[in-house]
Amino acid sequence: MPTCQNCGKKWSWKQTFIRLVRFRTAMACPYCGEEQYESASSRRKTMLIGMMPIPLVFILPYISGLTIWMALILVIVISAGMISVMPFFLKLSNELEPYW
Ligand SMILES: [Zn+2]
Q1: Which of 51, 47, 53 is nearest to 99 (CA)?
Q2: Within a domain: residue 4?
Q3: How far is the CA of 79 from the centre of ligand 1 (A)?
Q4: Which of 5, 9, 24, 73 could be a cystine partner for 31, CB 3.0 to 4.6 Å?
Q5: Looking at the 3D structure of the chain, how many domains does it have?
Q6: Does 89 map to a domain?
Q7: Is 31 a member of any domain?
Q8: Rounded to the nearest whole angstrom, what is the distance from the C-alpha of residue 11 to the centroid of ligand 1?
Q9: Cα of 51 to ligand 1 centre, how many Å?
Q10: Residue 73 Cα to ligand 1 middle (Å)
Q11: Looking at the predicted structure, is the pLDDT value of residue 93 above 90?
């Protein structure tokens, strides 16, 4: 779970998840209220996790005989699962770091 770089308190899964699904770059710490940003290395990781299911929409119908719609539903379910594990990989930073 991410730790606030300002006050050092650990965010809970729920607190992190709520902040993640808002898709805002700045996330206010629930303890000290200070704006926190996702660190560059963490952003690369969560972006990769988020993009992983996309090729499955095209690959699954070929290898499993699923229709594209069934594959799409499956990918949405997988994506929801991946978003729910993202708080475990999230790292915070006091400043907005450049991507690379
Ligand atoms: Zn804090």
Answers
A1: 47
A2: no
A3: 29
A4: 9
A5: 1
A6: yes
A7: yes
A8: 9
A9: 29
A10: 37
A11: yes
Measured in Å, residue 91 CA sits from the centre of ligand 1 at: 13
| Within-domain flag for 3 | no
**Structural domain boundaries, residue 51:** 13-93
What's the gap in Å between 43 CA and the centre of ligand 1? 19
Query: What's the CA-to-centroid distance between 69 and ligand 1, angstroms?
Result: 43
8-62 pLDDT, tens digit each: 999 999 999 999 888 788 999 999 999 999 999 998 888 888 888 888 888 888 8
How far, in Å, is the centroid of ligand 1 from the Cα of 74? 37
Interatomic CA distance for residues 16 and 24, integer angstroms: 12
**pLDDT for the residue 47:** 84
For residue 18, what are its two tokens? 């709520």
Q: What is d(CA 64, CA 9) in angstroms, rounded to the nearest whole number?
A: 45
Give the distance (Å) from ligand 1 centre to CA of residue 26: 13
